[in-house]
Amino acid sequence: MDRRQLLAAGGSLFALTGCANMGMGMGGGSPAGLSPEALARDAEIARAVLPQQTPRAELLQKWTGPYEGVPPWPSVTADKLKVAIVEGIELQRAEVNAIADNPEPPTFANTMVAMQMAGEPLGRALSLFGVMSSNIGSADYQAVQREVSPLLSAASDETTFNARLFARIKAVADGARAAGLTPEQTRIAERSRDSFTRNGAALDAAGKAELGRINSALSSAFTRFGQAVVADENTWTVLTDESQTAGLPASNKAAAAAAARDRDLEGWAIVNTRSSVDPYLSFADDRAMREQVWRKFVNRGDNGNANDTNATIAEIVKLRAERARLLGYDHHAEWRMQDTMAKTPEAAMDLMMRVWEPAKARVAEEVADMRAIAGHDIEPWDYLYYAEKVRKQKYDLDQNELKPYFELNAVKRGAFYMAERLYGYTFTPVPAGSVPVFHPDVEVFEVKDKASGRHIGLFYSDDFARPGKRSGAWMTSYRLGWAYDGGGNQLVSNNNNFIKAEAGQPLLISLDDAETLFHEFGHALHYLSYKVTYPSLGGTPRDYVEYPSQVHEHWVLSRPILDGFMKHVETGQPMPQELVDKIEAASTFNQGYATVSYLSSALVDMDLHTRATPPTDIDAFERESLARYGMPDEIVMRHRLPQFNHLFTSDAYSAGYYSYLWSEVMDADTWAYFEQSGDVFNPEIASKYKAIILAEGNTTDRGEAYRRFRGRDPDVAALLRVRGFPVN
């Protein structure tokens, strides 16, 4: 769940796309509209269906220890995880077959609730494996990932293709009204039936075999792509002459020196990840070295070596097109967008294209301003550097003037304060050693409800870059408590890639980094707030999931957080209002660049996945697609295809990178709601936001949920105003 990038167009978002009001409503009592006794009775019936199995593998066992059980990180190894995953697949197979072969007539309890329970041991192992693969990523975990990915794909297909199981699910869904199911139970059954259908449950035997082949091949290709990009990011540019660091803020220079020492190098190392590269491109005076650093970064996965991803991308898009045709869709985007708020590629494209031309026009203005200072044409490795010069000239605002106010630990405390003010959560450090962690850098905090003192869960904070860790910033859930089976606490984490400061020195981050931290923390707050009965209604649509995270970025510069936490690292004084005013005056500065770099990636994603005949030459396709859209020469895509993890490490964001834009319409409109109330911590709005937007998960249609929260559809004009685009 990467941090947002921007924008929007005009009109009502939901009206524009024809999103129907499909809300099912919520009953009284439990979130599902059932009494605890009824939920317990259904769970008992479901457990009676499942075979009694005792897992042998250590990493399949229920987690023990404090806080309702915690991940057993000290026991985790790659070999143990492989054993656990293989056994976990077998245990899940037995459970699924027991549900499918149950001689009793299908009911919600003996079929749908039982399916919620199936595979719990495997889920525990996969939670551990996902963390170790993403946050550690050593060769042994990569090897296991290559082995188990096709096994997991095959196991998923085996469940989907189980005709007896599908017949039971379909019977429950089709008979929901006659059986008197609650709206939420009906939603689960119908969504499950439709998902099985979309994923091939209704195909004949030959079709299922072919789809299984495609899915297995995709799973292996996703793994190859992700591991190749990580390998290309685990490289660096070495600066051997101090003159090559001229212009860098002291904190970034020190971090580059530390990165070099960590790699047994002399001088300074600019690691090939965005958190290291962007500061160099923004501040380093050495233009030739900026170009070298830039080229190394934008060519990740595109160097014609063992880590080149172009052939893998061509394989992925070919397989996706074959799958879409097999399932009766014109292309991958049509298949992928069935369960989204936008519903169709056309709706997403309409939103994107309405802002594309104004964004390009703004880029032309920005380039003209920069050229006047530079005295030469602006190349992509110049853009961030001269944008800082223009910012200083136009707004008397220097990004280096801001960094002393954003010390990493203070920013985290500010985020915790935001959560307390808005939602009544407190975050207390857990004593080191009392809870196991997967790396010594990880900090753990206990989350409680302030008013009642009730324990909610644990928050794991993993802030630093390391070899093998994937780039970017993201949120992960280790465990979520579901009401259908008695509930429980939530275990969530945030993962960043900050470069460690010199020993004893404060780690200063940029305003953009601070907003990224609040963004990912917003994802964590979303999951910590869940009051969802059934796991299958835990995941929200792709073009909604970024909304609750994006809106939390706005609180970074709110006065209470600035006064309490964003204090100058040397003077201890909070950021003066004069400086905040400069930031706000410059808030729409460089939005042409930010918009075009993001939106070009989203447009190329949709272009790639709406092709009936997918391209084979990926580099040529990227160039041709950008040329058709009129991509400015001075900017490169935020994520070029050869390193576009969102698209090619899974299906999750494929034909879906537009979702940051879609979500930001709701984000901007929500922030306007708080601001217009006169109190950005307005308790009434915050309470409603927590109850409807965060806590419900996907228990009702999310468009209907927004209307319940805001009283209307989101107003796109709010986003246009935030970004400084004309409102018309």
UniProtKB/TrEMBL annotation:
Needed co-factor(s): Zn(2+)
Key words, A-Z: Carboxypeptidase, Hydrolase, Metal-binding, Metalloprotease, Protease, Zinc
One GO MF term: carboxypeptidase activity
EC number: 3.4.15.5
GO biological process terms, semicolon-separated: proteolysis
Listed transmembrane segments: none
Positions of the Peptidase M3A/M3B catalytic domain: 284-722
Membership in a protein family: Belongs to the peptidase M3 family.
Name of the protein in question: Peptidyl-dipeptidase Dcp
Organism from which the protein derives: Brevundimonas halotolerans
